[in-house]
Amino acid sequence: MAKIVAIMNNKGGVGKTTTAINVSAGLAQMGYKTLEIDLDSQASLTLSVGLKNQEATIYTALKAAVEEGKGKLPIKHLKENLDIIPSERKMVDAEYLLFKEHGREYFLKELISPIRKKYDYIILDCPPALNLIAINALVASDFVLVPVQTEVLSLHGLVSMVDVISTIKKKLNKKLRIAGYLMTQYDGRTGLHRSVIQEMKGKHGADVFESVIRRNTRISEAPHKGMDIFSYDEKSAGATDYSNATKELIQRI
Ligand SMILES: Nc1ncnc2c1ncn2[C@@H]1O[C@H](COP(=O)(O)OP(=O)(O)OP(=O)(O)O)[C@@H](O)[C@H]1O
Ligand SMILES: [Mg+2]
Fold first, then answer.
1. Domains delineated in the chain
2. Residue 15 Cβ < 6 Å to ligand 1
3. Ligand 1, atom 5: nearest CA belongs to which residue?
4. Which terminus of the chain has a lower count of CB atoms within 10 Å, N or C?
5. pTM of the entire structure?
């Protein structure tokens, strides 16, 4: 039975999609059957693995679930042990689509339920928002992994997300747990970055990943070639960091 992990932070550009791609690829490489699901209307995950203009997406599945009472997730095979469910621009309408529905928080959970036993891990790439799609993701998940960009302002923004997670835990999904906060785009040469990590550890203790993702241009180049960091540059700092973070995630959950 798959462990389901939502990669979430309502702040934009913190490394959610990058983490979803590379952790999923890391898990697949270690032999775990992995499914990554793009939940964002920007479809960055979908585009980053080299897919575009997909007819069947997470949006069409949600739409069928609402309109026909029955939806099926369109699974695309990417490579050994790794599948994806793509997203598309129309996903911006999903919020409106679900809004008036009874049990609107449970649609994603119900779509995932029949395929859950096929995988070891299911990784959800969430939009930069605390909207109904994010709530669907939290209801469907066992764990939340929160990428945090290593900068002072990131820490303030975390409060509202932590509040939403604890509300969902109380009201809709008792088993939801924080897998951890993963610090991204870290630059060890700046004292400021080192102090941000210290501050995070002071506030969130053992919930902060020991592994840190350094800022590394190879990480930002890889998606332009439709690749994850391991196939793009196995020897890069980015590959080392995401390999460590993947191993740590497995231990933590
Ligand atoms: N460790 C890193 N080193 C260098 N560049 C990075 C790193 N992590 C992410 N980036 C780059 O930063 C940008 C934002 O990353 P990403 O798209 O993963 O963030 P996001 O949280 O998914 O954004 P959004 O909120 O828009 O969905 C991308 O261009 C990505 O390539
Ligand atoms: Mg993203």
1. 3-252 (3.40.50.300)
2. yes
3. 220
4. N
5. 0.97
